[in-house]
Amino acid sequence: MNSSVAFGPGKVILLGEHAVVYGYPAIAAALPLGVYAHVEPAECCRICIPGNLDEKQSALLQQAFEQAAECVGRPPISVRLEACLPMSAGLGSSAAVSTACAKALAMAAFPGKERALWLEKAAEMALCMEKVFHGSPSGVDHTTSLHETLLWFCRGEATPLSCPVPLNILVSMAGKRASTQSVVAQLRERRQRWPGHHERLFEEIGRCVEEARVAIEAGDLALLGELMNVNHGLLSAMQLDSENLTRRVHRLRAAGALGAKLTGAGGEGGAVVGLFENPEAALEVLRAEGLHCFSCRLASPEML
Ligand code: MEV
């Protein structure tokens, strides 16, 4: 085989994080930023561990890659990763790594096969890697990364969503955060202690996600923004936000966002997402204030 490159996009969750772990739906989209897996023919199947990872991260990546490679008979390739996405920031960096590696392995193991054929195997490998990184993920992150579009996701099933108007977002970074696994585990403990209260909050998030689907398909950005605001309030009620995140959410709203919320696991740092008709002016102002942020138009199925 020749040299090749596989891309695993990062993701942004518009609504439904955490509740999705308990079987409620979520809406997520792939980002134009992500992780590239550069593939070269080699004598044996191996991954070059990036030099910036600590010992624990290196061991996890090695273990995750080995397990994925075993699924497809260890094709003789060498994989080198290049990250063009903020890492450990709530933007699905581990799923982007998993997807990039899974695509690289699948393309090497099934050369010349149609995308649909190797995509199924890539999904299996990406999930296998995500389990090494996060324990028992819902699967929304790697599924969004693999589909590279705006998705409705519930219990492992994904449906691409179309929106008749552009979905423009601005993402503001709020620094490093605790691992997704530990934030999810802390919430699980609180849910075990107060199950009724948490179920009510998850059900309300589920209702917001259902309404948001209708809003997206109708191109009703004002309603979508409002539902994102409510979703942030519900995550906050579950202690998943922080002063750091909520300050940024309020800053995005003051800068003209139709709605804004934390995205991903939350906790101390991570990222917040705002929905904008046109984010360019806000982007300029926020960057001038020293905030680390970027904007993009979310890809929906008709753009692929
Ligand atoms: C993390 O990006 C999303 C969470 O809902 C965890 C998961 O879905 O596995 C917090």
Please give a structural write-up:
By secondary structure, this protein is α+β, with helices and mostly antiparallel strands. The protein has two domains: 4-160, Ribosomal Protein S5, domain 2, CATH 3.30.230; 168-297, Alpha-Beta Plaits, CATH 3.30.70. It has nine helices and ten strands. It has helices at residues 55-71, 93-109, 115-134, 140-147, 180-193, 195-218, 221-237, 243-254, 280-288, and strands at residues 4-15, 26-41, 46-48, 77-84, 151-154, 157-160, 168-173, 259-263, 271-276, 293-297. Strands 1, 2, 3, 4, 5 and 6 form a six-stranded mixed beta sheet that branches. β8 and β9 (271-276) form a beta hairpin. α1 runs antiparallel to α3 and α2 crosses α3 (115-134). It is globular and about 55 Å long. It starts with a strand and ends in a 7-residue tail after the last strand. The chain binds (R)-mevalonate (MEV). Residues 13, 17-18, 20-21, 92, 137-138, 140-141, 180, 184, 264-265 line the site of (R)-mevalonate. The site of (R)-mevalonate has 14 residues, from α4 and α5.
